[in-house]
Specification:
The protein has 621 residues and is an alpha+beta fold.
Length: 621
């Protein structure tokens, strides 16, 4: 007997399970699907709460998690336990954050390494993947509630400039939220699809996608040929957006009312009131010429559109300069752009629309809701993957993820499942032990975090790595997958040129049922897998920390006081004890954090002593 699925919210028959499109944004996120009757994409508005879900996660004192609009209310009242802009942290190390590390109001752990950042909330440590999963979980639950049907599969969008690590982190977040991520799609590609561009395989177009959100801006130039989207160039600023418009208004009001900026910033209630009024003014001035309001009858919040445009002119000019650079990188003139697409709520500001249209010499497309356009495009891509659009040819894709084994028996993905073939991808690795001259490369296929749960395809040794301190050798591991599904894996040490490669064929050899079972297992065990991965990664970080601090004491102990040396030894022992007791990842990170905070000032002191010694007796001319 065949099963028939019925969508209870529409009463329509469903040919198969719903696949949703998700826009996981820095400021806001959305989920969309294709309506079963009119076949048009629609953003899901669950219980009339609006289509937009703020990308904010709040942890209560009781350990509960609140996501979305309700969580946003805690940004000022409880900033240490309220996480925002987590998308900025996906796939990033602390060093990647650079001068932007003070942008965040919550605690980001600095382990002074290339390891991925972790966020400390009370005595628990979260990865950006876990926090993103909370947002995706909320979107999934909203979709299931609105559609009255299970939602297990999704297409998720990312910025065109996201690297492999950031894309894999997004996939992992989806998996942890109980979603099988069928494809990661570039946001500008999704926006173009929402406008119907690229759906006809015979269409050839060059498109500019101008995306100005709440906290980020990027411009992408796309070439669309035979249904294939190629990113010709991207540019932008990941710390520029509509929030800057709000800040310009607030500063104007502070000045006009002769307020003291520091006093306003310290008064959380007043600063929140000003921010909300500024946001209201910005929205009002997009459709009216004047905005008038007050706070407590004493602070005048009057603003006219021409004054607003004067305030934001430098910000808009910065986005246009990025457009100019992107066009230069793509080696194109404005006349060669066939269409300009506007994405992001901040593009509703008339001055922005006019500036973009003027720069490209043609009216920009803004007919679709700019907040929803990326999610709508993701839903169209999901519909294509579901096989519901027979007029669109899908290229062959990899049925399972391909990757290699890393420290602790973890699987590091190189080519994610559903990647189009032929394809090439790679990652860079280094040694973990001083003087290491060989590196074992073990190739696996599967969706689980631990290699023991996946299928081993090949193994070889990269020999002859020059003997150097741990972390110095740079080994590129590349996967080249041809159109016949034959995988070539090559490893090359960049400093010496030492190279080794192996060909794996045929690389699949699994039945459809086995592939399906591996996918199901990856979703079913996602939470356990991530927990196991995080414990292994915490132990690896701890062991590296022990190694580095012990070496530092041996070489530079004479520059520390006896009390400092003793405290360092005590904290080293506490970390060893936690490892010996097989502590959970939070206990390990607490011990790491304690040791790191205590020893971090030492390196700077030793550096200053070394500089003084090196400069002794030398003249500076």
């Amino acid at each position: 007997m065949a099963k028939v699925a019925i969508n209870l919210s529409t009463g329509a028959l469903q040919q198969e399970e719903v696949i949703v499109g998700i826009d996981l944004g820095t400021t806001n996120s959305l989920v969309a699907y294709i309506h079963p009757e009119d076949k048009k994409p629609i953003a899901i508005n669950d219980q009339g709460r609006g289509t937009i879900v703020p990308s904010v996660v709040h942890f209560t004192q009781q350990g509960d998690t609140i996501v979305g609009t309700e969580a946003k209310d805690y940004l000022l009242s409880d900033p240490a336990n309220t996480i925002y802009s987590v998308k900025r942290l996906l796939g990033k190390s602390y060093r990647d954050l650079g001068e932007h590390k003070d942008y965040f109001g919550y605690k980001i752990i600095d382990d002074d390494s290339e390891g991925l950042v972790k966020i400390r909330v009370q005595d628990k440590f979260y990865s950006p993947i876990e926090l993103s999963a909370e947002i995706l979980k909320e979107l999934r639950e909203r979709a299931e509630h609105a559609l009255k049907t299970p939602v297990n599969r999704a297409v998720i969008t990312v910025p065109a400039y996201f690297n492999d690590s950031q894309r894999q982190a997004t996939r992992d977040a989806g998996k942890l939220a109980g979603l099988e991520v069928l494809r990661i799609v570039n946001e500008p590609t999704a926006a173009a699809l929402a406008y119907g561009i690229g759906i006809d395989p015979n269409e050839e177009k060059t498109v500019a996608v101008y995306d100005l959100g709440g906290g980020t801006f990027d411009i992408s130039i796309l070439s669309i040929h035979q249904g294939i989207f190629e990113v010709l160039s991207t540019n932008g600023d990941t710390y520029l957006g509509g929030d800057d418009f709000d800040r310009a208004i607030i500063n104007h009001w502070i000045q006009n009312n002769e307020l003291i900026a520091d006093t306003v910033n310290q008064d959380k209630h007043l600063s929140q009131e000003l921010r909300l009024k500024a946001e209201e003014a910005k929205r009002t001035l997009s459709v009216q010429e004047v905005y008038t309001s007050t706070i407590d009858g004493r602070i005048d919040c009057h603003l006219e559109r021409h004054t607003f445009e004067t305030l934001i002119a430098p910000i808009v000019a910065r986005t246009i300069e990025s457009c100019r650079q992107a066009m230069g990188d793509a080696k194109l003139e404005a006349a060669q752009i066939d269409a300009v697409i506007m994405v992001g709520g901040s593009t509703r500001v008339p001055m922005v629309y006019e500036a973009v249209s003027e720069f490209f010499g043609k009216p920009a497309n803004n007919n679709l809701n700019p907040d929803e356009v990326v999610a709508l495009g993701a839903a169209i891509q999901a519909d294509i993957l579901a096989g519901n659009r027979k007029d669109i040819l899908l290229l062959d894709v990899t049925p399972l993820t391909l990757g290699i084994e890393t420290m602790g028996g973890l699987m590091d993905s190189i080519i994610p499942r559903n990647s189009k073939i032929p394809t090439k991808a790679g990652r860079q690795y280094t040694t973990s032990v001083d003087g290491q001259v060989n590196m074992k490369i073990s190739v696996y296929q599967g969706e689980r975090d631990l290699v023991k749960e996946n299928r081993k395809l090949a193994e070889f040794d990269l020999k002859g790595i020059p003997s150097m301190p741990a972390g110095f050798p740079k080994v590129d591991v590349n996967f080249i997958l041809n159109a016949d599904g034959i995988l070539k894996v090559e490893a090359i040490e960049l400093r010496s040129g030492v190279k080794q490669e192996v060909e794996v064929k045929p690389q699949y050899g699994l039945t459809d049922e086995q592939v399906e079972q591996m996918l199901m297992d990856s979703i079913t065990h996602a939470k356990d897998d991530v927990s196991a991965r995080m414990v292994i990664e915490a132990r690896t970080t701890a062991e590296q920390m022990l190694y580095q601090v012990e070496r530092f004491l041996e070489k530079n102990g004479q520059h520390l006081t006896e009390e400092e040396r003793q405290l360092t030894r005590e904290n080293l022992q506490k970390l060893r004890d936690v490892l010996a007791a097989n502590g959970d990842k939070d206990a390990i990170f607490v011990a790491i954090d304690r040791l790191e905070e205590q020893t971090s000032p030492f390196a700077e002191r030793v550096m200053q002593i070394s500089i003084k010694q090196a400069m002794a007796g030398k003249k500076i001319e």
